[in-house]
Design brief:
It is a single chain. This protein is an alpha+beta fold. It is 30% helix and 25% strand. It has helices at residues 7-18, 43-51, 56-59, 99-114, 164-169, 268-273, 302-305, 314-332, 336-358, 364-373, 386-400, 404-409; strands at 2-3, 25-27, 38-41, 63-65, 68-72, 78-83, 95-98, 119-121, 123-130, 136-142, 147-152, 155-157, 177-190, 198-203, 207-213, 224-233, 247-249, 278-285, 293-294, 297-299. An 8-stranded mixed sheet has the order 6-5-14-15-16-13-18-17. A hairpin with a 2-residue loop joins β19 (293-294) and β20 (297-299). 47% of the residues are buried.
Amino acid sequence: MIAGGGIGGLAMALTLHQIGLLPVVFEAVRELRPLGVGINLQPNAVRELFDLGIGPAELDRIGLPAKEWALVGLNGSDIYSEPRGLQAGYRWPQYSAHRGRLQMLLHEKALERIGADAVRPGHRVSSYRNNADGTVTAMVERADGGVTEETGTLLIGADGLHSAVRAQMHPDQPPIRWGGAIMWRGVSPGLPIRTGASFVGFGTHRQRLVFYPISPPDPKTGLATINWIAEVTVDNSEGWKSSGWFKPVAIETFIHHFEDWKHDWLDVPALIRRAEIAYENPMIDRDPIPTWQDGGVALIGDAAHVMYPTGSNGASQAIVDARVLGAAMVEHGPTRKALEAYDARLCGPISELVLRNRGAGPFGLLAIVDERCGGKFDDIDTVVPAEERARFMAGYKTAAGFAVEALNGAPPTIAPGSRAGGERPGEPRA
């Protein structure tokens, strides 16, 4: 049983089906819709999607391969840039995509491969019970007000930031943590710049704009869909006072922060004003927890490790979680031992990544530049030498699991044809 039909939960369902198990996904919303804005899928996650049989033709329908990652100072001069995806020597691309469209693609594949009842909308897992016989019972609240009990072999909590599964597993967990940054997100038509598929962080660690295309340019207009995140850090001593954690807002409520950000290569207020709608949310995470497992129950994705989006790897890590957990079931079967192996492999390292992202992740370079020169410079090498910049970025990629040599040389997380319980490709099924 899987609680949550987001990117992590659906990747988990597809993985379980691939290794010969029968998953069912309980999703709280009554109707899945392609909501949200842009995300980046790092090569380590794209590798896993390819191994799930979701290839370039399908990913090209929901986004486009990224070619560059760049940080630009307040005066428009480059701080750091590097190729990404195939251009960086990875065997797999990095994709900039629309989050909702990716979720709908995974949903479509789950229904197609597993069956029409693979995902049950309007069903929210509110609590669970580990049974004496080793099974797990989930209490499921239906949209019509009814409550049912569903029993299965295991329960995977993929129910996101406000996870009920995590809340029961760790009832004394600290509240959601807000570090002071407010983000406004949207998508606008615009001309792609630099490589035409560049991820750009522009500004300082206290105020910046992140933007990148999530579609190829229209052949007639030359305009692509540009995903943007406008961010400002404020005093958070009194906590988050606004209602809700993610809500639509009028552009005029925040555009004043960026009104004078006009350059010959980018007119920030014009880009933002072309959006049909903007969403406001604080940059939040949760303190790491000591384990993601309780008996026959395990957490994946944001339920396990909601993190600041500074490294563009939240959705990527949810996909990797699902695949690593699937690999543990290949080795140990759908058992508590598999959950233990998964927890031992990922909980510690990814908890460290949560804290690294809290410290600004790869955008930490902006903080270094700001401390040394206020964000404006003539020659970046006199502010932060090239070797220091490269070392900083290499450390982050290693921590996030997509260092190029290590990823390219790693065997598949799940070998083709593998089945849960140790059956190997070519062996007869029991």
